[in-house]
Amino acid sequence: MKTKQKLALYLLSLTSLLVLWQILANQLNPMILASPWQTLMQLFELILTADFWQQLLVTLNRLLYALSIACSIGFTLGLIAGRHAWLKFYLAPFRWLLMSIPPVIIVLLAMLWFGMGSTMVVFITVLLLTPTIYINTQKSVEQIDNHWFELAQVYQFSWYQRLSKIYIPAISGPLCATLIIVCCSGVRIVVLAEVLGAHQGIGFELANASSNFDTAELYAWVVVSLSIVAFMELILLKPIQYYLLRWRKLS
């Protein structure tokens, strides 16, 4: 599909959402749903304040730390477990536990252990995201043909050569999909954790707007959260995806 066609579909989808939003706003009480125009005006007012950028920076820092730690742990363990069955079976109970326990329980325990603040937010996010990265990496590595590892052993590939020439190309497709899921989920988890137990950040501002019944500000912060997701997927992850999948265009 051509770039112009993709852009046209994006704009059509965005327009449809705005129209639906406006229709619902006309039907519902303003205390329940602010209109797109009210939200946009409130967003512009927020952007002009120093507090807005401070709160945004706090959330972005938490998100960056959490994603970096979760991706490092999940990817490393997934690579090893994909090649060594003993580690896969050893980690299986931990994976089942983390993927089945309700997030609200993790939030309550983290608040009890770490109190309210960045440590709690990062801990929750890492704990909830790492299993997704791990299981996708581990399953993808298991699908790699052993023939490639035999060739690597014959030609005495270094660890870096195995990673860049075998592992990354073989799991690049699932890895790209996993990164998108994890980044989107990461924003939601960080904001949720901030709503429940933080004194700064987007989630904290969302909670304040909700308690003050300021619907326009509430939806303005929601738009900010959505913008973070869009920025990460379109600006940050697209180049990474293009780089990881570049070998397909060369084949």
Defining key terms:
single chain; 251 residues; mainly alpha; MetI-like fold; 86% helix
Task: Please describe what this structure looks like.
The structure is a single chain. The protein has 251 residues and is mainly α. The protein has a single domain (36-250), classed as MetI-like (MetI-like fold). It has helices at 3-27, 36-47, 50-83, 85-100, 103-114, 118-142, 146-154, 159-197, 202-211, 215-244, 246-250. Helix 3 (50-83) runs parallel beside helix 6 (118-142). It is globular and about 70 Å long. The chain starts with a helix and ends with a helix. The mean pLDDT is 86.
Furnish the topology, listing elements before pairings.
Blueprint: H1 3-27, H2 36-47, H3 50-83, H4 85-100, H5 103-114, H6 118-142, H7 146-154, H8 159-197, H9 202-211, H10 215-244, H11 246-250
Strand segment count: 0
Tell me the fraction of residues in β-strands, as a range.
Answer: under 5%
Number of helices: 11
Supply the CATH superfamily name: MetI-like
Task: Describe the structure concisely for a colleague.
This protein has eleven helices and no strands. The chain has helices at 3-27, 36-47, 50-83, 85-100, 103-114, 118-142, 146-154, 159-197, 202-211, 215-244, 246-250.
